[in-house]
Automatic annotation (TrEMBL):
GO terms for molecular function: phosphatase activity. It comes from the Eukaryota. Residues 1-19 form the signal peptide. Keywords: Signal. This is Histidine acid phosphatase family protein. Belongs to the histidine acid phosphatase family. InterPro entries: His_Pase_clade-2, His_PPase_superfam, Histidine_acid_phosphatase. It comes from Caenorhabditis tropicalis.
Length: 464
């Protein structure tokens, strides 16, 4: 893969300590061999200007100025996250106590705030007294003591990087969303009284038509202004906690739909859920799974291992709420963000997923563990046991992870796949649907459980 952008930055050590106890005892037979980490950037300025926006564009001066930039608050969050990761992986001796270019690879989307998040994170991770002047950085007057450049890689514009950004341009996904929007669940949503009330109220307030497609812009602006300009927002005649809660309540289903979460997952005979997820979390989980497989093979047979993979131990993706959520969806973990009652809520700033690979010396096989951090005020929690196939386990057979990757693997290389519109081959056996419709009299939008019921009925029919 070609990486077009290479960024460097400087690491410093600052007199900032925050000790975190890691209290996870790993079974004796397991040895940590590789870590993938996928985080969301930290706090940022709002994404764009609204008509009648209470905050003037000139007010957004933080973090380089302008919209969508990582703020100092966001830098601090990532710095703290970097410290937490340092406690987990450097203090424990898994990684060297300085930036080792052979061990670590940092990949960001090519967006200011994710690149700056990676910078800030590395600063927290490697701010250590063991950086060696003359080896890690030049030992010259004027060079800040302890500052050490670390490369942050990026693979092309975010709208073309389907591995690290789940929202990359994809015609196929657009077409699938259109089909999905014909389903009863989505139709009920956009016909609900609350949806109609809030979108029409919002459209009037901000003198622009707002629908499920762009309502996030208002939610985003209000959410962020409440952080950075709380007096200005709460002073607006239209602002009330109730109005903001309405925006949140409408955003959650909308975010679930964009992510491919539909109930039932089949609309007009197409499994829109699986097909959409293939274009969002699919490329990322396969990237992770392939690297873990290579690494697991390396551990088993060092002779067949190339030096790049022999030394590599830590791979980070600096990304967006879209991407962190997309990976959770692939693993069936979407409700760990805010609980099932807030289904569809996306991950907070500086939330983080860890996918750890272990070698089990008893059976010589690879195992994995998944941890999730809600935000920097939280602690990493092991969530492996919530993955289907890993019930009650903290460490699960790597085969389960590979089967998830396979289930959501794009049918072709993602850029080609995104050009292919869904067609008959994606139909959930159209003959079968016709059969249901004609002989059993069921509509296509029947609830999932009835769908299975009639399937059993049909099997009975066949084998009688
Ligand atoms: C750490 O683990 C031990 C043993 O499982 C447990 O008793 C203790 O409460 C844990 N401490 C924290 C802070 O979670
Ligand atoms: C970075 O920020 C500048 C200033 O806001 C903006 O013009 C530019 O488009 C941003 N670039 C990316 C890739 O986000
Ligand atoms: C919609 O607005 C009407 C009129 O303002 C109000 O009576 C009704 O309670 C609102 N419905 C919801 C679900 O918010
Ligand atoms: C609303 O926007 C339109 C242009 O889109 C403009 O002509 C009109 O004056 C605006 N109305 C108000 C009240 O700002
Ligand atoms: C809030 O509104 C009052 C009265 O309209 C005004 O005097 C005050 O300056 C406003 N405060 C802010 C922070 O905008
Ligand atoms: C390691 O492998 C052995 C043999 O298959 C198994 O009994 C044990 O549970 C494994 N350890 C973990 C933590 O899964
Ligand atoms: C973390 O806690 C601090 C102090 O309670 C609070 O100000 C901050 O908003 C919290 N951050 C997040 C991301 O929840």
């Amino acid at each position: 893969m070609k990486f077009h952008f290479l960024y460097s930055f400087f690491i410093t050590f600052i007199g900032f300590t925050r000790t975190l106890e890691t209290n996870e005892t790993v079974p004796e037979e397991l040895k940590l061999v590789f870590v993938h980490t996928v985080w969301r950037h930290g706090d940022r300025s709002q994404e764009g200007h609204l008509n009648n926006d209470p905050v003037d564009p000139s007010k957004w001066i933080k973090g380089g100025g302008g919209y969508g930039q990582l703020t100092p608050e966001g830098m601090e969050q990532q710095f703290i996250l970097g410290k937490m990761l340092r406690d987990r992986y450097i203090k424990t001796g898994f990684l060297h106590n300085f930036y080792d270019s052979q061990q670590i690879y940092i990949r960001s989307t090519d967006v200011n705030r994710t690149i700056n998040s990676a910078f800030s994170n590395m600063l927290g991770m490697f701010s250590s007294c063991t950086s060696r002047p003359g080896i890690d950085y030049p030992d010259i007057p004027g060079w800040p003591r302890g500052f050490m450049p670390v490369p942050i890689h990026s693979s092309g514009p975010a709208n073309e990087d389907c591995v690290a950004s789940a929202f990359c341009d994809c015609k196929r996904r657009e077409a699938l969303l259109e089909i999905a929007h014909q389903g009863k669940e989505f139709q009920d949503y956009i016909k609900s009284e609350k949806y109609l009330n809030v979108t029409s109220q919002t459209s009037k307030l901000f003198n622009k038509t707002f629908t499920f497609d762009n309502l996030w812009k208002v939610h985003d602006a209000v959410y962020i202004q409440l952080v950075h300009f709380p007096e200005t927002v709460s002073n607006q005649s239209w602002y009330s906690e109730e109005y903001f809660k309405d925006l949140e309540d409408l955003e959650r289903p909308s975010q679930a739909f964009v992510s491919g979460l539909y109930n039932p997952p089949i609309v007009n005979g197409i499994n829109v859920q699986r097909e959409i997820v293939k274009t969002r979390g699919g490329p990322l989980i396969n990237d992770i799974s392939n690297r873990m497989r290579t690494k697991a093979n390396c551990v088993k047979n060092d002779g067949k291992c190339d030096s790049y993979h022999r030394n590599l131990k830590y791979y980070a993706y600096s990304t967006h709420d879209h991407t962190v959520f997309a990976l959770l969806v692939v693993l069936g973990l979407e409700d760990i963000v805010a609980g099932p009652e807030k289904h569809g809520e996306w991950p907070d700033y500086s939330s983080d997923i860890l996918v750890e690979l272990f070698h089990n010396s008893t059976d010589g096989r690879p195992y994995f563990r998944v941890n999730y951090l809600k935000n920097i005020n939280s602690t990493f929690e092991t969530v492996t046991h919530l993955i289907k196939g890993c019930e009650e386990l903290s460490y699960c057979d790597f085969k389960v992870f590979e089967s998830k990757a396979k289930e959501f693997r794009p049918d072709r290389p993602i850029h080609e796949f995104c050009q292919v519109l869904p067609g008959d081959e994606n139909r959930v056996t159209s003959w079968f649907k016709e059969f249901l419709h004609e002989k059993v009299g069921l509509e296509s939008s029947v609830d999932r459980k009835y769908w299975y019921l009639s399937y059993s009925f049909f099997l009975l029919f066949l084998f009688k």
